[in-house]
Each structure stands twice: as C-alpha cells, then as structure tokens.
C-alpha cells in the first residue's frame, strides 16, 4: 500500500537521522523525506582530535554518506533531498528548499508539501563559520567541501606554534588537550585556554574541573579563568590573531579558536516559531509552539539542538527521539493512547577526554576516573560505534 502521510525532516544529522529511522521502523504507511544541505554526515564528536591531529583518523571513519545510511528502506517510504530549507509555510504545510547542484542536476527551488514536519536543523559554532575565529569545523559546514575545510583547518593548526582557545566547556577542554599533545614536538609552542567562568568545565562538579585543570596543566596548557573575551581579529598581513579581553588586555597567537557555545541554524524558521536566542520552543511532546498561540496543535515538531531544551548534547537527543516519534505516531493513527511526555535528560553523563590517555567527566553525581574516560571515549571518540549508531 502506498504511504498515506508524508513526514518532512529538515536536518540530516544526529536528531534528523535517528528520527528518520525511528519513524520508518515504528510507523506504518508513512513516507519520510529527509533534507540536508550536504550528503555527508560528519561525526563531529571526534572533531577535537580530527582537527588537532590530522593523521589520527582516516576521513572515511568520520564521514558517512547519508543516503547509504537508509539503503535498507525502499524508495517508496524514504527519500533524501540534498538542499537547504529556505522557509516554512505553516498554514500551507510546505517547505521551500534550495536544492544543491549535484550529479549534473542544476540547483533549483523546490516546494515540498508535508503532513507533518520535524525541524532538526541543529546548531553551529563560531569556529565552524570561521567568524571571529580560525575556521575549524566542530560541526558540519553544510557543504560538500567539508573535507577540504577540515584539511585547511588541520594545516592552519599544524603550522601554528601558539594558540588561544576561547571557552572551557567540554569542547574547549577536549580541544586544548588534543592541541597541547599535537604541539609537544614544537619548540616554543603554547596553548592558552580562556574562560569567563571561575573554573573550567563549569557545568560539571568541581572535582571534574580540578581534575581537568591538573591534566591540562601537566600538558603545558595555560588556563585563565574569569576573563571575558571582548573580541578577536586576525591581522591580514602578519596572520597573527589578537584576542582582546574586557578591560583592554590583549593576547596574541598564531591561531585563535573559539569554542564559546552554539548558534541556532534557524534562518528558514518563521519568527513566531522562535523563542529567545532564536531556539525553537516545544511542549513536552516536542510539538512546536507558535508564539502567542497557546495550545495550538501545529503538525510541526522539533528535536535536538535547535529546540529550547538544554543541555544540547547528542546523548540527550537519544532520549528525545522516542518521545517525539510516539506522539507523531499517535497523531498519524489518530490515537489518544500512547502519547508520551518528555521529562528531561535524566542522569548527567559527560565524558571529556583530555589528550590520548586521560580525561575526566561525570556520570550521575560521580566524577569519573581518567582511565575510564580513556576506555569509554578517549581511544577514538566513539568512532568504533558511529556506523551502527547511524544505521539504526
Ligand atoms: C566538537 C563537539 C563535540 C561534541 N561532543 C559531544 C559528545 O561527546 N557527547 C554529546 O552528547 N554531545 C556532543 N556534542 C553535541 C552534539 O554534537 C550535538 O548535540 C548534536 O550534534 C545535535 O544534533 P542535531 O541533529 O540536533 O543538530 P546538528 O548536529 O547541529 O545537525 C543539524 C543538521 O541540520 C542541517 N541544517 C541546518 N540548516 C538546515 C536547513 N536550512 N535545511 C536543511 N538542513 C539544515 C545541518 O547541516 C546539520 O546537518 C558535541 C558538539 C561539538 C561541537
């Protein structure tokens, strides 16, 4: 029987890929159309090591061809469109897409109708955009030249002898550890980690912060807490970066890499579907909430980094997808039973490798040992299970 409902998913990364599989496995008579600007999924979890240590992993270990992840489904129930959503017509139930020029086909505008829409367009970072930072893809660039952008970043960092990293959350700390190890053979090398908080890894227990502090210090990383970065710029002639701190102090280095948080990918999302900061507000069922229209039941869901939910982590996405899909299924089957409510991310699980041999983190209320971080994540940043995670 031909599918009777079409679900369009905007964003083909963690949240979009996992939602697509869950729908195709759990809901009958549905076609899923997945839209993503690039045909390549980037295993960005490993980005701190990929960028700092170019030979650590082969590109085929951390990049995946998105259509191949869904080859087990027939074309009647799944299709992939390589393109970027430009706008959503909420009442007309369509998404306008600018398709990419691929396989000899010209780029064009396409209007795709949906019965249900899932927004999974995620987030990006200043470094990924190359804005006020060395261009360093910590997230996907949304372009098929991702690998050449990665290689450019690897070259810039390999040529640098001094680096400043802004932001000491998990990504900043992981990257500082990897870069410090990569710089060890260089004479006069230095890595400085700046944070506006009074300790690094402020989202974790103080024990994890002090453990990270000692491991990074052993690797020679200079840590400065409670400093606010006011700006960063690169001199076009000398290529040196100058980081200006609030108060006027300036620091210079061959590279400045920002890891100071994430920015929503929301340019195509109507203003009344955005809350403060540009993130998409949802209810406990993951249904998008239009500003000023309480209790409206739009056929639009959102999941992952693009939502107002924090923390923005892959391991929280894993808990969100089943709830969203249960509610979508109930909508499609017009059932009031089996609806689910999301009650939050649950137990804190954050593991932060620091270099190839150590790290820290927190599982529930417990700070974890460095050797355990190495065992769980530090060996290859979960690359060993990337393929199976993405294909199911
Ligand atoms: C360096 C780094 C390391 C991390 N490590 C961890 C970790 O160890 N553990 C953990 O739990 N979390 C980690 N995270 C967080 C994790 O990466 C995010 O939570 C996760 O990527 C969120 O997935 P997502 O699918 O919601 O969004 P994203 O991964 O941001 O993907 C969004 C997708 O939507 C696409 N898109 C954007 N705009 C459009 C558009 N207009 N049309 C169509 N598609 C669009 C993008 O190209 C992208 O493919 C890390 C983050 C970083 C930056």
From TrEMBL:
Gene3D superfamilies: 3.50.50.100. Keywords: FAD, Flavoprotein, Oxidoreductase. Signal peptide: none annotated. Residues 6-313 form the FAD/NAD(P)-binding domain. GO terms for cellular component: cytoplasm. It holds the Pfam family Pyr_redox_2. It comes from Helicocarpus griseus UAMH5409. This is FAD/NAD(P)-binding domain-containing protein. Belongs to the FAD-dependent oxidoreductase family. SUPFAM superfamilies: FAD/NAD(P)-binding domain.
